[in-house]
Amino acid sequence: MDETLLSTPAADGFRMPAEWARHTGCYLIWPERPDNWRAGAKPAQKAWITLIETIAEYEPVTVLVSARQYQNARGSLSEAIRLIETTTDDSWMRDTGPSFVINDAGDVRGVSWTFNAWGGLKGGLYFPWAADDLVAPKVCDIERVRVYQPDFVLEGGSIDVDGEGTVITTEECLLNPNRNPDLTREQVEEMLHAHLGTTKVIWLPQGVYLDETDGHTDNFARFASPGVVMLTWTDDIDDPQYERSAQALKILENETDAQGRRLTVVKITQPGPLFMTDLEAHGVDSTPGSEPRVAGHRLAGSYVNSYIGNGFVVLPVFDDPHDNEAIAIYGELFPHHTIRTVPGREILLGGGNVHCITQQVPRG
Ligand code: KQY
Known about the structure:
alpha/beta, four-stranded mixed β-sheet, three-stranded mixed β-sheet, 18 strands, about 20% strand
């Protein structure tokens, strides 16, 4: 495809559409690294298959897969799923893939942010990450779209847009010294606006307790429609999550979006709290440089970490007493979508969930 664009999406008339805008497809990456996915990634692969086949009922799905796993993935997935052999470090398509932007003429382009494995050598989750840093430009090449490559560290899960000028993010992540230490809050805002076509940033202090991404907003607070935000919640004031969610609620309820609308906040009570079991922790290989997995470690479970596709929404469930309430809330928030669920625990054990492992390609 053409050389990297030296301007910015906003300067060229592009903006990131909301996730509920029409898609031409969805990308995922096949999981395999045994120092993040237990039991040689077999349980994770099963969870991926369920999610991939669910999404494929509604929109075309492409799965990036290593040469080593190609035949296994091909044999496990239905024919409709497109597989493309690609080298990656892990399987977090939301964070390593491009953020797609569109213009009024119907063109699509990609933003390939700089990726440093959620913090580089200062708290990042694995080393090296060079293959992951190349996922976004490769996907833009596959999609035959032009690409912006800002010198700015950002993961797609750390932002959420309403497609009408507003972006939500957290200070815990985007102002973390392990992302862009030389930039001020104002300069970070400028980078977001220039590359997302937004005009207003809503800053939340923190995300979900012990979220190893440093508080990605896609696990915590996301738009369900313009003016409506889903927020991970707990009523338990003794839970460390309470203060985080209460602070965010206060900010969101007193904010307006880029269009001047007051926000409606919909609380979605978190599952659990959920903890890693002995069996789960011991199934993960230990490798220097990657995050150790410890039995008893609290997991950053959330129902907000869902994927909004063409006519459907798929959210993770955990065989938890709060599952049904979350499903019912999604039904109210998305009355014109079919609400689908997938088992979320195996994805959560690796540090994220449905939204973190998917990336939509918007229709121009
Ligand atoms: O977006 C995410 N939640 C990614 C989490 C990465 C975890 C790596 N072990």
